[in-house]
Amino acid sequence: MTYATLTAFPYYASTQELNNPEDSNNLQNTLISLMQSGERSNPAYNTLLHDYIKFHAVLFIEGGIFMLLLIILSVYFWRRFKKTKKAKTFEKKVYFCFGLVSTIVTLFMFLIVAANLSSVLNPQEGFAQFIPDLGTPQAGTQKAALHQAVNTWAQSGSTKIPSILQNKIKNRLSWQRPKAIVCSILLVVFTVFTARLWRKLINLRASQPVWRLKEKALTTIGVIAVPVTLLLMIMALANTQASLAPITLTLLFS
User: Is the distance from CB of 155 to CB of 30 less than 8 angstroms?
Assistant: First the structure.
């Protein structure tokens, strides 16, 4: 292996630490060996690598869509902020706050999208950094049995996914897919609800300078609805990603 390869994949330098006599038959070691050998005809290794790529590609695409929508919202809020007269203090404050929040979230989404794009464009490097995260599960646990089955599968180069991995994926998808659907639906509902509520509050403030308890309660609900909507966006992203590329998360957390 050349120095250039070591530089491109810094985790290769830890191979000797992983490859010790006490832990030679290890999933991490097997994957690193396959990566170092440049083997691309191993169906098992390709399946794991392609799922890893899909895992990041899904978040790049879906995150990119959300980022574009947030950019549009940011531009809209800042334009409304500039056009709103100073006399309409409440409306101006609302557009300023929403413009600021949407801009911050847009920058956050940009970081996520950029990080996942990097993994898609350089999957070998990203996969090399992912391998140590698999860890070495405690002997006798279900995770240890899963890793051993996947290790045997990777060494054999078989096209058939081990039954224990198939069952783990099936169990994960049984709750992950419904959760992704529910979170996505709730995201749409809360987005529409939040937008209409704040529009109503702006109109109420224009017609009623002095607010009663009802208007104050609606304002509190509106403030709470904003972080809830953002949380639902993250949950929809994460669960959709895990539903479309379940092998990576199954190996990490099952």
Answer: yes
Give residue for tokens 């992203």. 237
Map tokens 């140590």 to a residue. Answer: 132
Distances (CA, A) of 95 to 12, 90, 99, 231: 50, 9, 6, 21
Q: How far apart are CA 42 and CA 94, in angstroms?
A: 57
pTM score, whole prediction: 0.81
Tokens of 146: 């899963």
Report the Cα–Cα distance between both ends of the chain, in Å, rounded: 33
pLDDT by position in tens, the chain (length 254): 333 333 333 444 344 444 444 445 688 898 988 888 876 778 999 999 999 999 999 999 999 999 999 999 999 999 999 988 876 788 999 999 999 999 999 999 999 999 999 999 999 888 988 899 888 888 888 999 999 999 999 998 888 999 999 999 999 999 999 999 999 999 999 999 999 999 999 988 877 777 788 888 999 999 999 999 999 999 999 999 999 999 998 998 87
Triad 180, 185, 191: Cα angle to 5°:
125
Q: How far apart are CA 70 and CA 79, in angstroms?
A: 14
CA angle 88, 94, 99 (to 5 degrees): 125
